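for the record, two folds in this file. i put them one after another cuz i was lazy. first one right below, seq on top, C-alpha cells after. the second one comes after a little note so u can tell where it starts
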Amino acid sequence: MSNTLSSNAHIDESLRAKVYWWLERPDRNAFGPKLLEIILIALIILNVSAVIIETVDSIYQSWKFAFDLFETTSLCIFICEYLLRLWVAPENPNSQSRMSWVRSPVAIIDLLAILPALLYLLIPIDLRILRAFRMLRLLKLTRYSPALSMLLAVFEEEAGAFFASFFILMLMLIFAASGAWLAEHTVQPDAFGSIPSAMWWAVATLTTVGYGDVTPITIAGKKFGALITVIGIGMAALPAGIIASGLNEQIHRRRSSMQREFRKALEDGMICEQEEEDIEALRKQLGISSRAADHIRESVYAEMKAKIGITCPHCGKPLDHESSNT
C-alpha cells in the first residue's frame, strides 16, 4: 500500500514538473514552451482587441454569438492556466508555497483577468463594466515582456515610497482645497462652495493639468493658486523620480547578472557553445540588447584579463577576445 502511494506521488511530481516546464519555460530555448507562450500572448491581444471592437454596438450586435463564444473559450483557457500555475507553484524555486505564489503580483494579475467574468456569472452586473474590467487582461503581458516585468518589479519594490508620495499628495490636496475654499467661496459659491467642490481645482492644479474650467478670481485666490501650481510641479516629479530611480536599479541588477554569467563562463579561459547558448537565453530573459551584452562581454573580458590573465587551457598562451568565444 505504501509503495503504491509513493509511486503515485512520484508520478504526480513528475507530471507537475513537466507542466511547470511547459508553463514557466525554465528552458528558454525549448520550442514547445515558446510556442505555448506565443499562443497565450496572441490570445491576450485578441481578447483586448475584442473588448475594444465590442464597444461598437453595430459590430457587436451583428457578431454577438461569435464574441460571446470567444469570451467563454478565452475565460475557460485563462481559468485552466491559473489553476495549472497554482498547481505547479511548488516547482518554482522563487515560491516557497502555493500561498506565496497567490500573493505574487503576476498571480494577482492572472486572477484579476478572470475574476470579473466569474463575478458576472454569480452577480449580474452592467455588461459595460465587465468589458472595462476585461481590459485588465492586457496586464498579463507583464509575464512575457521583460520591460513590463521590470516596471512591475519597480512598483513592487518601491511600494513604500509610492505610498509615502501618495500620502503627501493627499495632504497637499486637502490643504489646497481648503485654501481655495477660504479665498473663493464667497465670490464663486458654485465652484468653491465647499472643500469637496474645491478639490477638483486642487487636483487639476497639483497635477499641473490646469483645465481652466475653474480658476480663482480674487487676489488672495490667485496668489494661493500660483503657490499651489509651483508646489504641484514638485509633487508631479515625485512618482516620476521614484520610477526612474527604480528602473535604473533594475537595469543595474540585470546587467550585474549578465556580468556574473560572463565571469562564470570565463573561469576556464573560454566560452564554450553551451555557455554561449545559456548567456544568450539569459540575455533574452533579462531584456538586455545585443549591443549592451557585447559591451558587458568586452568589459568583463578586459577586467579578467587585467587581473589574472586569460590563457588557453591547452597551450597556456594568452587568448584574445575572438578566440575566447570559440
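(here's the note) second protein begins now
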Amino acid sequence: MLPFAYRVFQTIVQEQTFYRAAQTLNVTPSAISHSVNQLEKELGFPLFIRNRTGVELTPDGQTILPLIQAIINAEDRLQQAAANINGLNAGSVRMGAFSSVCINWLPPIIQQFKQDFPQIDINVEQADFSSIASAVKTGRLDLGLSALPVAEKLTVLPLVKDEIYCITPTDFIPANRTTVTAADLADQNFILQRGDYDKDTKAALDHYQIRPNALRFSIDDQSILAMVEAGMGMGILPELALERVSGNVNVYPFDTTFFRTICLVVNSEQAKAPSTAKMIAAITDYVTAKYPDKVLAHPHVG
C-alpha cells in the first residue's frame, strides 16, 4: 500500500498550507507535521519552506515531486485496474482545460460520463495552455485540453481547428462588407487576453502588422466583448469562445483564415489508467459528433 506520507506531500503541494492539507485529508495538523518530519528524516533533506501565506517546496522538494506523483499515480492505476476486474468501474479522472472548453464542452461531456460511469470521480481544473501541459507532464493532471503547439513531451491528439474571428463595434463594416482586410485594420486598437498574445492571435496580428502599442489586454472573453461594444477597440476571438458569450458586436472572418488547433494532451503512463482511457474516449466521441466535418484524425492512446 502507498505510504500515507506521499499523499500528505502531494496534498500539501496542492493546498499550499499544512492546515488546509489536514482538512482535505481529514486528519489533524499535527499529524500532517509528523508525517512531513518523518518523510524528511527518511529522505535526508527538507521538503518545504514556510512563507507568509503558507509553504512552498524547497529545490530538493521540487526535484522529488514528479517522482512521488508518479508513485501515487501508479498506485491509483493499480486500484482502478483491481476495481475494473471486480466489475466496479471505479477510479478518478483529473483533467485540465482552458476557459471556453470548460464552458462549452465539459458540461455535456461530464454529464454523459457520469451517467455511463457513476463510480468514477471527476476533478476539473481551469488553467491556461502552458499550465495544463505542465501539470499533465508532472502527473498532477491525468489529461488536459489545450491548444497547439505543446512544448512539453506528451502524447498530443489534435481534435479540431477552431477558426479565429475579428470582433468589431456594430458601426464598423469592412470595406468589402464580408471579410476584414489589412486596410480595415489600419490604425485600429485591439483588445486581447494576455495569454493569447503569444499563441494563435499573434499570428493574425503579425500578418496584418498590428503595432504592439495598439494592443490592450483584458481578463476574459466576455470582458473583450464588453470593451469592443463600448468602442474601445477590436477583438480577436476563436469560434468556440463565441458560443456562449454575448455582446452587441459584429463578428467577421479575416480575409486570410487563421485557426487555433484544440488538442488533448495526455501523459502516456496515465493514459493506461482505465478511468483516463474512458474519459479520452468520451472526449473524442463528443468532438466527433459535434464537429463531424471539422474533427481531425487522431491516434489511439494507450
